[in-house]
Structure formats: C-alpha cells, structure tokens
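Priority: low. Protein: 5-oxoprolinase subunit PxpB. Input follows.
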Amino acid sequence: MEYKLINEQTIMIYFEAQINPDIFNKVQQISNYIKKQNHPAIIDIVPSYRAIMLNIDIAQCDVKQVVKELKLDQLNNKMEAHTNENPKQISIPVLYGGTHGQDLIEVASYHDLSEAEVVQLHTENTYLIYMLGFMPGFPFLGGLNSQLHTPRRQEPRTSIPAGSVGIANNQTGLYPKESPGGWQIIGRTPIQVFDINRSPMCLYNSGDTIKFYSIDEETFDHIQQAQLQDDFDIEKWVNK
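Result:
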C-alpha cells in the first residue's frame, strides 16, 4: 500500500494493480478503518478496485495533517473489519440475445462459441461487486469467465436501455438506467435494480455478489408489467 497527495484536497491510497478479491478486501478494510476514525476534515471516501480516494475539507485541515492523524504511514493492510459485514447474493433474471442482447451473437462469434454456450458461461459464475460507479447502481463485477473476455465496442452506442447486461474486456456489469455506453450488450434484466423511490434505493452494495439467471421473453414481460403494481414482490425474483 502507498499513498499520494494528488492535490491540496485529495489523497489517493493505492494497492497492487490487480483486480482480485484479495486486493478488494484490502481496499475495503482500509476504507472501513478510515471511516471509523470519523475525521472531521474528510468529506468523502471513495473506494475502487485497487485504490481509495479521500476528499478533504482544507478549511478544517490540510491533507498532510490528515495523513499524520490517520497514521497512513503505519497501516499494514491487516485491518480486521470489512465495510460490508453482511454481504448478500442477488439473483438477476436476464433475457439474453435478440433485441435485448444485440451483441450476444458477436460475443459468441468472437470466441467461436454458440449463443447458448455464452449464456451458460455467463450464468454459471457468481460475480463479486468490486464497486458501484459510472452512474448510481452500476456494478463493476469481477469473476467473468476468461472464455468471455471481449473488447468493448469500437463505436459506443448513444443510448443503451436500462437493465442492459454487458461485457467489457474482463468485466461484466449492468446499466441501471438508460445511458450511452460501449459495452457489448448480451441481455437485459426487467428488474429495476436502482429506484430512488425505494429503500434501499439499490439492491446491492460493493462486497455483495450477483448471480445472473436466464429467463424467456414471457417471463421478462411478466416482470415488467408486475413492477407497475404496488404489490410487486421483488424478493421473489432476486432471492433465488
């Protein structure tokens, strides 16, 4: 672990340049340690795959003083706590291919696989949520089978529908809201994973895991329509 003063308001703490669960746990442990210090000058703590960004209120304290008070020089990556002490697994139903997964055929062709084989490979793994970013509720997931590692699209789309599930290089993830993007879209979930009118607004946090499962078009339409009703039971679909 090392830290750098990026500017007069920002400290970056870096770990090994890898995407794996061990590095993720180190990031989460140090983030948890810093949060528990409750330092009045720290405005925000933003963890990622292998780094933590600290935003500092320099009206209260300069960054060098924050470093000293947090004892960053003495941290040894052996903190005991974890920021997500009750991780959960969320199951996400996905309609693969067709108009909802227009890049499935390209991903299959790129790897000399059938579309069914891509779906099987994508649904058989459990994915760790390393971070939420890009937009509220967008999970960056680790654990994608190496047989599905696929480059981003050369030409990003200007609009990707909410719920779209995609692949970009060695990662998979889903778009909670409509957005531009360059990921290879292989399917779409009808579940609203992020909803400002729901508590909690997001179905998952970093440290949780996601397991995708395949559904047919009839089930997709049923879930979409059911979500318009006040008595929609989302737990029925995401706790499998």
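The chain has a mean pLDDT of 90. The longest helix spans residues 21-37.
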